[in-house]
Design brief:
By secondary structure, the chain is an alpha+beta fold. It has 20 helices and 11 strands. Helices cover 51% and strands 7% of the residues. Its cofactor is heme.
């Protein structure tokens, strides 16, 4: 120590030991760094190792990286290609795969009843939907708890019977008439025209279902464009589906573009107000229309009714869920028909063998189209409108799945596309063969062992889609009238339309451009 340093410190009354104490890390900082170190060790080492080796699900096969953390699943999901990854995982690990620390994926027909089946007292509890997927606070039939779901379904079920469908047919036929009229305008002078059929099927189904649910169409067909609310939904399909993932794994909020997300919420809020005004207008209108709104406003008893909020939320559910899946399915069918002239020829031949004129085509008579019905089933197997999993969660105390006790709060489900393309359950699973759905005796024997009981595109059990029969009738009816009026061919730019599509809860689809040639009921070879 120099004399200069000693004199300098002495001048200010400071000793070297005071400086040493001041420079020593404080107890608070020590605790902070120790805590951060422990947290890092827990998150990056201890918890992943515990999940891999000591978790109640650790005996199930699956990649260790997925067992260690939910992040690998989340990253694949936001990529849009989870449907391809989960297919590869099941091909490698088998029918039951652990795809997350507390998540199991089942690709076997027998699992439908145990996962999605009816609640049986003293035998099987319901596996509810996780709140991050469908919250009971949504006030609609999809998110409702067991009791509220049953009440809503009993109120709404009469609107989806065969008799109700017959009453709704004039309204449905009117929208299909306009759909065909608009397509004919595209083919000026009877010449062929290139048309984006994804757009036009979407316009048709949203106008049709919107009219049934809200009491007035969205004007998509008339204006040849989507309603602004629907534009929001389709333009932000990525964000809306990633929000579901964020509720489950908060880390993925980092992937959301903040400005766009805030704008989306503000726009949705504005359109919710406008849609509520539409509902108010319909509720104020006198007289019956035999539409969904008539059914939802009925009160069969003092305990069987829907609140105004439930009416509004279920109208949105029916429009968004019913119209999108139907338009997606019809677009997929049009693509397959354009790519497979042999299949198209059989569908058209059956159509002309069954009906003498277009006037004979209605929502009841199309049920007689055996090959067309088989074609629709095969199209839904080959290109399911909801390719991924409809998640469920085991209840308090766990549940028994395929004879095994699965602990509580385990996320589980069946990925549609994986099960429907599995060579274990389907002959020539990656090939398109409507013949596999023909009645026994007409069906080629190579398809006899197909697990048709595992095919549940509209879900299964008490929460099966209430509009399933209407959707089938709509698809048959629209397809029959469409093919009665137009021959269709694929364009060069759409030949790979079905390849490499991204999928979230639904497919993220590009436009499908087909060449339409007016034929107006003329039989074709």
């Amino acid at each position: 120590m120099s004399k200069f340093q000693d004199s300098l410190l002495g001048e200010y009354g400071v000793e070297w030991k005071d400086i040493a104490v001041a420079l020593r890390p404080s107890t608070t900082l020590q605790y902070l760094f120790a805590g951060l170190g422990f947290l890092t060790f827990y998150v990056l080492v201890f918890k992943p190792l515990r999940n891999i080796f000591f978790h109640p699900l650790s005996h199930h096969p699956g990649p260790r990286l997925f067992a260690a953390s939910s992040l690998p699943y989340g990253l694949w999901y936001i990529s849009g290609y989870w449907h391809t990854k989960i297919f590869a995982l099941h091909a490698h690990y088998g029918p039951i795969v652990r795809i997350g620390p507390n998540e199991l994926s089942y690709a076997c027909p027998e699992a439908w009843d145990d996962i999605y089946g009816r609640y049986v007292p003293a035998k099987r509890k319901e596996n509810p939907k996780p709140e991050w997927y469908c919250s009971p606070a949504s006030h609609d039939m999809v998110g409702a708890n067991l009791g509220d779901h049953g009440r809503m379904r009993r109120v709404m079920a009469p609107g989806f019977t065969y008799g109700a469908m017959c009453k709704q047919e004039p309204l449905i036929a009117g929208h299909v008439d306009l759909f065909l009229e608009k397509l004919a305008e595209k083919c000026k002078g009877g010449e062929e025209a290139e048309v984006n059929m994804l757009e036009w099927f979407t316009y048709c189904t949203f106008d049709l279902i919107g009219d049934l649910a809200f009491g007035e169409p969205f004007g998509c067909l008339e204006n040849a464009m989507l309603h602004p609310w629907l534009q929001l939904v389709f333009a932000n399909i990525y964000i809306t589906h990633i929000l579901v993932l964020c509720k489950r794994i908060p880390f993925f909020y980092l992937f959301l573009p903040l400005k766009t997300t805030v704008q989306l919420f503000l726009e949705f809020s504005r359109h919710v107000v406008l849609l509520k005004e539409v509902v108010d207008r319909r509720l104020a209108r006198e007289g019956k229309r035999d539409d969904f709104m008539d059914i939802m406003t009925s009160k069969p008893s003092k305990t069987l009714y829907l609140t105004k909020e439930e009416i509004f939320k279920n109208a949105i559910l029916l429009t968004g869920g019913g119209a999108e899946t139907t338009s997606s399915s019809l677009t997929g069918m049009a693509y397959i028909l354009a790519m497979r002239p042999d299949v198209k020829r059989k569908v058209v031949q059956e159509l002309h063998a069954t009906f003498a004129s277009e006037a004979d085509i209605n929502m009841r008579s199309v049920a007689k189209l055996t090959y067309t019905g088989a074609f629709i089933e095969e199209a839904l197997r080959y290109y399911p409108p909801g390719p991924n999993t409809m998640w469920r969660r085991t209840p308090e105390g766990g549940n028994t799945i395929l004879g095994e006790h699965i602990p509580e709060n385990t996320v589980l489900g069946i990925p549609h596309r994986v099960l429907y393309r599995s060579p274990t359950y389907w002959a020539r699973a990656d090939e398109f063969h409507p013949e596999r759905w023909l009645p026994e005796g007409q069906r080629p024997s190579e398809f006899d062992a197909d697990r048709r009981d595992g095919f549940q595109p509209f879900s299964y059990g008490p929460r099966v889609c209430i509009a399933m029969n209407l959707a089938y009738a709509e698809m048959r009816y629209i397809l029959a009238r469409y093919l009665w009026h137009f021959d269709i061919d694929i364009t060069e730019k759409s030949k790979t339309w079905m390849d490499n599509q991204k999928a979230y809860l639904v497919w993220d689809k590009p436009g499908l451009f087909l060449r339409l040639t007016p034929v107006d009921g003329v039989a074709r070879e």
